[in-house]
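hiii so um. not sure if this is the right channel but i have a protein structure encoded as tokens and i wanna go backwards to a sequence. like what aa goes where. can anyone help
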């Protein structure tokens, strides 16, 4: 418990210092936040354009797809907010030898990576996601009872863990490749497929985003549990198991990578 308190205190101190730095340029902060918010609005506009031509997509209505889109943004936004610094491991920290500073401090290395910054731009994703979920509640298209409310928060946490685990796994390849950014970028962009029903894709893509890089379990599959009756709560259980397994694999790879890490030197 004392160790947990120490890390919580350190996290608060490190993040407070980071927030002081970004507030030195309030215009950049607001522009970044507006940019992400605007990007989410464009995604919703795309759904409206699709439904002008196709009134029903494999039996899914526009309101249901908007809920799936919004639901997907919440775990993605949480991951983006708290663990965005993992991207730097993939792109340049290992390549340039900047990872040395984490190795020299008497703290958990993964904690140091994620505690170095928050990504305020993620507030745009969280805001849009929350608005769209509330819209679905107002329209009465989601199932609301004690079990579904509880599993909603469980699913959001598990989804964020899946996002972080996939990001950490591909970023950790940098310990061998020196830079794994392109691989991480390619894998992460596949999450966009999960914002729509997987039935609209070919079997190969469905298998890929469900069981290989399982972004379907952070959006469409759990979201369908909240939209349609008769779907077993076991769907959320599978999401949690996948999140836990991915985390164990990704963190083990990261830990092994830190043990074989060699500084880039001069």
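sure thing!! here u go:
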């Amino acid at each position: 418990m004392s160790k947990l308190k120490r890390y919580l205190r350190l996290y608060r101190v490190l993040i407070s210092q980071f927030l002081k730095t970004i507030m030195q340029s309030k215009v950049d902060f607001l522009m970044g936040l507006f940019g992400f918010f605007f990007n989410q609005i464009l995604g919703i506009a795309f759904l409206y354009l699709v439904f002008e031509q196709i009134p029903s997509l494999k039996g899914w209505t526009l309101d249901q797809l908007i809920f799936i889109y919004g639901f997907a943004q919440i775990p993605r936004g949480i991951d983006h907010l708290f663990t965005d610094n993992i991207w730097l491991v993939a792109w340049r920290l290992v390549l340039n030898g900047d990872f040395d500073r984490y190795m020299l401090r008497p703290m958990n290395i993964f904690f140091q990576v994620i505690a170095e910054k928050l990504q305020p731009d993620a507030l745009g994703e969280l805001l849009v996601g929350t608005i769209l979920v509330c819209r679905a509640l107002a329209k009465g298209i989601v199932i609301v009872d004690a079990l579904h409310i509880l599993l909603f928060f469980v699913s959001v946490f598990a989804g964020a863990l899946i996002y972080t685990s996939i990001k950490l796994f591909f970023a950790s390849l940098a310990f061998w490749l020196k830079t794994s950014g392109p691989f991480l970028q390619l894998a992460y962009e596949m999450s966009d497929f999960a914002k729509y029903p997987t039935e609209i894709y070919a079997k190969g893509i469905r298998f890929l985003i469900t069981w290989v890089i399982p972004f379907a379990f952070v959006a469409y599959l759990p979201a369908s549990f909240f939209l349609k009756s008769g779907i077993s709560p076991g769907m959320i259980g599978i999401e949690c198991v996948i999140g836990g397994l991915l985390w164990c694999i990704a963190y083990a790879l990261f830990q092994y990578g830190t043990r074989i890490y060699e500084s880039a030197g001069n």
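oh and The chain has a mean pLDDT of 86.
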